[in-house]
Amino acid sequence: MSSHLETSSGLEPRTEAASRPAFDQVDVRGPRFVAWITTAVLVLVLLAASAAPGLATALIAVQAVVFAVGALTGPRKHPYGLIFGTLVAPRLGPVTETEPTPPLRFAQLLGFAFAAVSLLGFVLGSTVVGAVFAGFALFAAFLNAAFGICLGCRIYPLVARFRPAGSPASN
To answer: 61 phi and psi, to 5 degrees?
Structure first.
């Protein structure tokens, strides 16, 4: 039996965990946890940008790598996702809602793009560009963490229609 609920991604209905194959779905609480950690890192980037640009550069570089890993490997192997799966999920109740992984991977790709431009700005000495693009990533991460609104997930259906059928991004 499946109960359909509005998703944060707007892509398709969230369903009870048992009604979908586990390989393409993740617990909805995981991406929100990831978004909270990402929000904290990006706040630190912005705080460091004016006082310690070198620290801001290092932090955004690490976050860019984290976004890249999430985009390439998916939520289960995402560094912050591993923390959720190892330390947080075992202490929570059973999974009641899941969401598909491809939109989450796309959201991580968008986060990587913002972080890469931010990193480039910091490296080239333009703290303003670095801070603005870190701010864009922060805005998206905070929306997901606080309100369950995943901007990348909402954009994903628009971009997915241009992807060739059977591409690896669909897994």
So the answer is: -65, -45
Close Cβ partners of 4 (under 8 Å, ≥ 6 residues apart): 13, 14, 15
Using a CB cutoff of 8 Å and minimum separation of 24, what contacts does 91-97 make? 92/29, 94/17, 95/17, 95/27, 96/16, 96/17, 97/5, 97/14, 97/15, 97/16, 97/17, 97/27, 97/28
Rounded to a whole number, what is the largest CA-CA distance in the chain? 56
Instruction: Report the C-alpha gap between 88 and 136 in whole angstroms.
Output: 27
Q: How confident is the model over 80-93, as pLDDT tens digits?
A: 999 999 999 899 99
Q: What angle do CA 22, 37, 149 make, to 5 degrees?
A: 65
Q: What is the pLDDT of residues 33-72, one digit of tens each?
A: 999 999 999 999 999 999 999 999 999 999 999 999 999 9
CB-facing half-sphere around the CA of 110: CA atoms within 13 A: 20
Measured distance between the N- and C-terminal CA atoms of the chain, rounded to whole angstroms: 24
